[in-house]
């Protein structure tokens, strides 16, 4: 059950983050607020079902950071440093794309300046990020089956001759 929810939450993360990276109309402060609220509801649901150890919440980390990125101030060099230290699960390319797509929804907000984006790129240039922008939503985590030892000892097993397993020897 834990592995299923980890996979499901990864898919939610990948599809939501990819939509954020591809659609200018959703890159705004209010979308960041809405995403953060929805993610907290998912995390609360995991706690309520006692699934917090499944790793499902950790798969949402890039989406959480993207939502926070949309909500942070984006003006000064200190803001750039804060963004760089906060967004460790996002690649440089993803951070820059979100900043480029950021769209103010009212007259109190301002667009992200080109100088600020260059400042972010300078701070992040030593990162060795993969050159991918979008997440692979078809990624599958390996299925792990728990080992349950048998109470039957190997020397008490009788192998029927009808199975034609003469090459097996008891030691």
Automatic annotation (TrEMBL):
Residues 1-126 form the Dilute domain. SMART domains: DIL. InterPro entries: Dilute_dom (IPR002710), Vascular_dev_regulator (IPR052072). Coiled coil: none annotated. It holds the Pfam family DIL. GO terms for molecular function: GTPase binding. This is MYO5B protein. It comes from Tricholaema leucomelas. The gene is Myo5b_3.
């Amino acid at each position: 059950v834990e592995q299923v929810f980890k996979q499901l939450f990864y898919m939610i993360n990948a599809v939501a983050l990819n939509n954020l990276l591809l659609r200018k109309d959703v890159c705004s402060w209010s979308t960041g607020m809405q995403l953060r609220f929805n993610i907290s509801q998912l995390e609360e649901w995991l706690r309520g079902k006692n699934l917090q150890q499944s790793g499902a919440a950790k798969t949402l980390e890039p989406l959480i950071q993207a939502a926070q990125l949309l909500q942070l101030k984006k003006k000064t060099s200190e803001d750039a440093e804060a963004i760089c230290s906060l967004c460790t699960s996002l690649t440089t390319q993803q951070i820059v794309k979100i900043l480029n797509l950021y769209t103010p929804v009212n007259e109190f907000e301002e667009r992200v300046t080109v100088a600020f984006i260059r400042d972010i790129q300078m701070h992040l240039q030593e990162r060795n990020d993969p050159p991918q922008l979008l997440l692979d939503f078809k990624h599958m985590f390996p299925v792990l089956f728990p080992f349950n030892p048998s109470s039957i000892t190997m020397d008490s097993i009788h192998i029927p001759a009808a199975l034609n397993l003469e090459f097996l020897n008891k030691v």
